[in-house]
Amino acid sequence: MVGRKTYHVYVMANEARTIYVGVTSDLEGRVWEHRTGALKGFTSRYGLTKLVYVEEFDDIRDAIDREKQLKSFRRAKKLALINAHNPLWEDLARDWFG
User: Fold this and answer.
1) What is the tally of structural domains in the chain?
2) 38: domain CATH number?
3) Residue 71 sits in which domain range?
4) pLDDT per residue of the chain (98 residues) written in tens, 0 to 9
5) Is residue 54 part of a domain?
6) Does the residue 19 lie in any domain?
7) What is the DSSP string of the chain?
8) Residue 2: inside a domain, yes or no?
């Protein structure tokens, strides 16, 4: 049996706590793209290289719905969500990828 596909809603940040919310089916690859600047635009312009929040989903529709929900939050609510799960704003990549 083939392994189940998972989808992730994630938040990338920089030291100034500028944040970006995204969704992907390849979290490790997407974090690498953010870190290397392979994704041109907002994340590379602001140096958003730190993975600070992640949620996992089995269904892409649920992941997209959650991404839209998080993007609709005011900044204070997004920061409160991150602070509740990752109060030190540590880079979670090593927890997810080793």
Assistant:
1) 1
2) 3.40.1440.10
3) 7-97
4) 466 899 999 999 999 999 999 999 999 999 999 999 888 899 899 999 999 999 999 999 999 999 999 999 999 999 999 999 999 999 999 888 86
5) yes
6) yes
7) -PPPP-EEEEEEE-TT--EEEEEES-HHHHHHHHHHT-STTHHHHTT--EEEEEEEESSHHHHHHHHHHHHHS-HHHHHHHHHHH-TT---THHHHH-
8) no
